[in-house]
């Protein structure tokens, strides 16, 4: 995102500040993400990290949890604080079932549209909601849409959070998604050490899209196990927080 040319010196400085804030934001686009690969959550070559965004949801998340339990798989769930308050029992079940709880923010807003100070305050609010409801405090953070800004990196670091994006996604949020299309979307990047992004809620996706995710889970896990890979949460993936960039103001 290139700041527009501004003739006046003061305006140029302001544009430069905006550019500094938003410079990493294109990291969500695979084609330009190479400098940010350290955020992809690459882990142990015999392990695949299974992660879900946008929950919890009172209807869809329990269905996902039932399937994971039947498969004997634990995963990482990046939660939205406002959804935690809407589905507190599901949040508590996530913890009781042994899944890893991580932070996705308070609301699902693009970080570029939130001032840095307000962004940090919203993360604190979400962390408090998760901890007071589920009794655990997340150590991992994934910004909505995968949009990483200087503000997100600074806020996460100041709160002791490690920012983790993904290396393969199922595009399960699309209105045309099916269990088969989810698997096809994942296939090109589905290797040992990858972090997989799926969604357990359709709060920001096409209505009912979570059913495609649900339908893809069993064949996905069986395929990975057939390759000799283990499937689990990021806590078992070997992501090194020391390799995540430490931003400076």
Report on this structure.
The strands form 2 sheets. Strands 1, 2, 3, 6, 7 and 8 form a 6-stranded parallel sheet that branches. This protein has a two-stranded parallel ribbon with strand order 4-5. Helices cover 38% and strands 14% of the residues. The chain is globular, with a radius of gyration of 18 Å. The chain has 8 helices and 8 strands. Strand 4, helix 6 and strand 5 form a beta-alpha-beta unit. The protein is α/β, with parallel strands linked by helices and 249 residues long. 44% of the residues are buried. Mean pLDDT is 85; it is low at 1-35. Helix 2 runs parallel beside helix 8, helix 5 crosses helix 6 (150-158) and helix 7 crosses helix 8 (210-226).
Which terms summarize this structure?
alpha/beta, 38% helix, globular, 249 residues, six-stranded parallel β-sheet, disordered N terminus, two-stranded parallel sheet, 8 helices
Report the helical percentage. Answer: 25-40%
Assembly state of the chains shown: single chain
**Taking all residues together, what is the mean pLDDT?**
85
Q: Categorize the overall geometry.
A: globular
Number of strands: 8
Order of helices and strands: HEHEHHEHEHEEHEHE
Distance between the termini: 19 Å
Low-confidence stretches: 1-35
What percent of residues are in strands?
5-15%
Structural class by helix and strand composition: alpha/beta
What integer value in Å does the Rg equal? Answer: 18 Å
How many helices? The count is 8
Largest sheet composition: 6 strands, parallel
């Amino acid at each position: 995102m290139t700041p527009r040319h501004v003739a006046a010196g003061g305006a140029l400085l302001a544009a430069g500040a905006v550019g500094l804030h938003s410079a990493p934001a294109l990291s969500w686009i695979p084609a330009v993400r190479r400098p940010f690969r350290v955020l992809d959550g690459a882990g142990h070559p015999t392990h695949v990290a299974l992660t879900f965004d946008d929950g919890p949801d009172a209807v869809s998340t329990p269905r996902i949890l039932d399937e994971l339990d039947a498969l004997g798989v634990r995963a990482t769930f990046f939660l939205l604080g406002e959804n935690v308050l809407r589905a507190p029992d599901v949040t508590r079940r996530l913890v009781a079932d042994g899944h890893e709880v991580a932070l996705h923010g308070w609301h699902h807003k693009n970080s570029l549209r939130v001032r840095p100070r307000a962004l940090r305050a919203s993360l604190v609010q979400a962390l408090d909601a998760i901890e007071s409801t589920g009794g655990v405090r997340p150590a991992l953070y994934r910004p909505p849409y995968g949009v990483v800004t200087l503000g997100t990196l600074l806020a996460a670091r100041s709160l002791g959070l490690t920012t983790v994006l993904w290396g393969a996604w199922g595009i399960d949020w699309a209105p045309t998604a099916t269990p088969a299309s989810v698997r096809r979307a994942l296939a090109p990047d589905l290797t040992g050490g990858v972090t997989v992004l799926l969604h357990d809620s359709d709060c920001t996706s096409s209505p009912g899209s979570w059913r495609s995710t649900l339908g893809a889970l069993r064949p996905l896990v069986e395929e990975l196990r057939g390759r000799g890979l283990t499937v689990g949460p990021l806590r078992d993936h070997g992501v090194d927080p020391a390799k995540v960039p430490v931003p400076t103001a």
